[in-house]
Design goal:
- The chain is α/β, with parallel strands linked by helices.
- It has one domain: Ribokinase (UDP-N-acetylmuramoyl-L-alanine:D-glutamate ligase, 3-Layer(aba) Sandwich).
- It contains eleven helices and 13 strands.
- It has helices at about 1-5, 20-30, 80-85, 95-100, 100-115, 140-145, 155-165, 185-195, 245-260, 260-275, 285-295; strands spanning about 15, 40, 50, 60-65, 90-95, 120-125, 150-155, 175, 180, 200-210, 215-220, 225-230, 230-235.
- The strands form four sheets. Strands 5, 6, 7, 10, 11, 12 and 13 form a seven-stranded mixed sheet that branches.
- Helix 9 (about 245-260) runs antiparallel to helix 10.
- The chain is globular and about 50 Å long.
Length: about 300
């Protein structure tokens, strides 16, 4: 939805059950200007999750109900990726998709393969979710094969440890002002070196003061240098859900528009910061609103 709000033409690829719940979800996506022509209809169940929101000192909690959903039943042959990716400028996937089922992982692999053959940039939010990997394969058996043909990844220390077995040692951590000890430079270099098609590794940074007050920033590595983003102090969070998706959508939009990593990073960080002030799963801010926050005086830059 975020990309559509920025004026981009977006197609969403998924599967819904053949019932009123599925079609209601489809109409919700349609109303924000997202193309859903490639969403498959079939099966009886919608994948769900139940979220208990955190507040103050109490963190949130989530329960997934994805087993047997329409989307969990897709496979490598469900979608005509040659048709779907015709004329596309970008393909984005998340680590949640291959966590749902072996068939969903196969469908993701097929999409990435076709995108790479057509020289379409491929990005991923690695997004490790321990409560989803329940179908018999370990993340390390699935994810490296998907990441190897991906150009840009959003990753943190837990993601690369669970998916790639890259675990930083104490000496790999460094003090990052306002965010404590992090090993983003180590994991970024390791991921970039391991995958020959990798262009950029992004790490978002969050200092959780409490469930309602966070500091937010990020870093991107292009294989040669690190770009450090603006820092946003968000003292009254309305809804933390969707911040990562808001970041990636805005990053993709700005990268396509400006061809500049630092601009894309700061645009993504600002969009995600604004999303935390909006209830619900998706961001509905405009490009002008994000630009205003990027250019706002008094927003500091991340430093070591």
């Amino acid at each position: 939805m975020s990309l559509a709000q920025f004026g981009d033409q977006v197609s969403y690829v998924s599967a819904i059950p053949n019932n009123d719940l599925g079609f209601t979800a489809l109409r919700e996506v349609n109303k924000w200007g997202v193309n859903t022509d490639h969403v498959k209809v079939g099966g009886d169940k919608m994948g769900l999750y139940f979220l208990e929101k955190g507040a103050s000192l109490r963190g949130g909690n989530i329960i997934y109900d994805r087993a047997g959903s329409a989307f969990s039943e897709v496979n490598a042959d469900t979608y005509n990726w040659e048709e779907i990716l015709e004329g596309a400028d970008w393909f984005h996937w998340t680590g949640i998709t291959p966590a749902v089922s072996a068939g969903a992982a196969e469908a993701t692999a097929r999409a990435i393969k076709i995108a790479r053959e057509r020289k379409i940039p491929v990005s991923c939010d690695l997004n490790y979710r321990s409560k989803l990997w329940k179908y018999g394969l370990e993340p390390k058996e699935v994810m490296p094969g998907l990441i190897q043909n991906t150009n840009i990844v959003l990753a943190n220390e837990e993601d690369v440890a669970k998916y790639l077995g890259i675990v930083p040692q104490e000496s790999n951590y460094e003090e990052l002002e306002g965010f404590g000890k992090r090993s983003y430079s180590f994991i970024s270099r390791m991921v970039h070196a391991r995958f020959p098609h990798m262009h950029s590794v992004i790490t978002t940074l969050r200092q959780t003061i409490n469930a309602s007050h966070n500091r937010w920033s990020g870093v991107v590595y292009n294989g040669t240098e690190f770009f450090h983003g603006q820092v946003h102090d968000i003292s009254a969070i309305v809804d933390r859900v969707g911040g990562g998706d808001a970041f990636m959508a805005a990053f993709i939009h700005a990268k396509l528009k400006y061809r500049d990593l630092e601009k894309a990073l700061n645009f993504g960080l600002a969009a995600a910061a604004l999303k935390l002030s909006i209830p619900g799963d998706y961001n509905v801010v405009t490009e002008a609103e994000v630009d205003q926050l990027v250019g706002k005086q008094g927003v500091s830059m991340l430093s070591r």
